[in-house]
Amino acid sequence: ETGVTQSPTHLIKTRGQQVTLRCSSQSGHNTVSWYQQALGQGPQFIFQYYREEENGRGNFPPRFSGLQFPNYSSELNVNALELDDSALYLCASSPDRSSGNTIYFGEGSWLTVV
Amino acid sequence: SQKIEQNSEALNIQEGKTATLTCNYTNYSPAYLQWYRQDPGRGPVFLLLIRENEKEKRKERLKVTFDTTLKQSLFHITASQPADSATYLCAPLGTGRRALTFGSGTRLQVQP
Do A45 and A35 contact (CB within 8 A), yes or no? Predict the structure, then answer.
């Protein structure tokens, strides 16, 4: 049990639609990262938020956006969904943005785009 | 470009034996390297972190080595058990980097 909770756990969307995924980070953690994991692959970094500001971004298009709230919970929004967006979306929290910190993953949200 | 390689084929071993998983990286100078365990349909779980100035790190039945000259980390599970069956991911991390870069993982299957 990592203390990181994500919702929803599973969802199905149609191509072109928009989706919002939510994450509640571990208590006391001010840094949240989002990862996309396709079947058979390792997680790929989407972006990180630190104290409500984006603090780094991976190689994902602008239709992937995020928010972090004052309580450090976070959202991942994906617009204009494509079939290739079907994946497990993982949220991870850490005590701060320093390198070398242990990060704690949630169980993920499975997104299927049809 | 940076590349992380883990054995893509599953590793099958007998219960009680030592499992050794390999993580090789290129075009990369990580200050840290982390290992995670991931069960099917679940999020990764942190196991061990080793720093570039550490050659070896142990935790219970787990041992990780980090050879910055070979650009390789080895992950060992001694006295393996069927409950150790999972996918194991390595993730090198450079100082100041914001994000972990994961390998695609190696699936370990421990036969009773």
Answer: yes
